[in-house]
Amino acid sequence: MAGKDVEEEEPWLFEYKGTVFPGCTRKENLDAMPDFHIRDDDVIVVGFPKAGNHWCAEIINNVMRAAGKTTEATMDPEAPGRILEFDDEIADETRTNHRFLEGKPSPRLICTHLHREFAPPGVASPTGNTKIISIMRNPKDTAVSYYHFSTKLGDNEDDWGTFADNFLQGRWEYGDFYRHVLGWWELRDDPHFLFLKYEDMKKDMKGAVEKVATFLEAELEEAQVASIVETCTFRNLKVVYDKSADIGCRSIIARKGIAGDWKSMFTDEQNAAFDAKYEENLEGTGLKFDFE
């Protein structure tokens, strides 16, 4: 896509204020974000695509149900347990997604891949009691996972080498990885935020569930924590997702769910290029990733 108009080169993509977006995001939703109202009891998950957003949201859903923060009465009757998103199209063609979200019952669990600069003010600079969980994953595994996902979805027709270069240069969906993670990382000391890393969750799932529960002020028994850990293992969620007939791409969300899968795809040259970009962008920021 280098040197060419993104919409001419990849017709399912479009550029908005210098960032590449998939067509399903829709410009109307992005235009509406500065005025979108965030409620005090909203729980928001922010993360670059393929960072573990859905996995994190499943944990949150289960924690909130176990703590009695969501009940049958507060579940969305149109899609109980569904993960709502700012930046994705919905089946109802009569409403853009921000209008759809405005009518959803509280508490809402909303996921977004948006950079901080594109997010609603109530997420980018939160006040009140809104809870925001930022999920991050190392850029190499993120790129490999995104390649396989977008290829299965039919959005990507490039080979791995071309895709890896586009990802590294921020010429793929949602733009530059580092611009995204560092924008949210600036808020690491804000009490409205909890930051989680995919690799840490893989190493200590129980600890991740307990962190989420504490952050959401959800008092859980040990047995409830153990049940959530078992329910939200990659193995169990993959079975659910693979059989899903849900809207969109849920059935291809889960693939391997491991850390270090980048080694199966990266050439030495690609590895060196990704390492150089990593050091250039993260040196001195305090943000580090594990690659194993």
TrEMBL record:
Known EC number = 2.8.2.-
Sequence intervals crossing the membrane? none
Q: Which InterPro entries match?
A: P-loop_NTPase, Sulfotransferase_dom
SUPFAM superfamilies in UniProt: P-loop containing nucleoside triphosphate hydrolases
Kindly name one Pfam family recorded for this protein: Sulfotransfer_1
Question: Keyword annotations for this protein?
Answer: Transferase
Q: From the UniProt record, which GO molecular function terms apply?
A: sulfotransferase activity
Q: Which EC class is the enzyme in?
A: transferase
Domain (Sulfotransferase): residue spans on this chain: 40-286
State whether keyword Lipid metabolism applies: no
- Spell out the family assignment given in the record's similarity comment: Belongs to the sulfotransferase 1 family.
What's the protein here called? Sulfotransferase
